[in-house]
Specification:
Layout: H1 3-9, E1 12-16, H2 22-35, H3 44-57, E2 59-65, E3 68-76, E4 79-85, H4 94-105, E5 110-114, H5 118-126, E6 130-135, E7 146-150
Antiparallel strand pairs: 1-2, 2-3, 3-4, 5-7, 6-7
Helix pairs in contact: 2-3
Amino acid sequence: MDDASKDRSAGLTLRPATAADAGTLAAIHRRARESAAIPNLHSRTSIRRFLLRTVQQSQVMIACHDGTPVGYAALHNGWLDQLYIHPEHHRRGIGTALLAWARHESRELRLYCFAHNARALAFYQAHGGVILSEGDGSDNEEGLPDLLLGFPET
């Protein structure tokens, strides 16, 4: 890790999420999607319930900066179902740390990324992600074209 990376990730810790974190995760989820122009189709309460179920059924890791939750990742059966960073904390090594955790946990990690989300796509590709297939949006509730990405073992 170079000095710039160390500075960006100073104060960063990862911890497993608990049911008590569902509201915090929901707030991060909504803000991150808004910043990436991904529609929030559900109410705050519905998103909170969804994330409570996610915490109970998946591996969810929270990234904290100086003790404050700023991002999270949800992993289920080799799928990175969610990786969201609060927009005020982009480019600080948080996504990199969460992706490294997910790749450590799953040897054949896969995920979907909306095709219009250039920032996320560039991030995943910079970390070794390759596009495996393209979708027209008919298989997701947002109706947005998406990309299936995978991470070859290195």
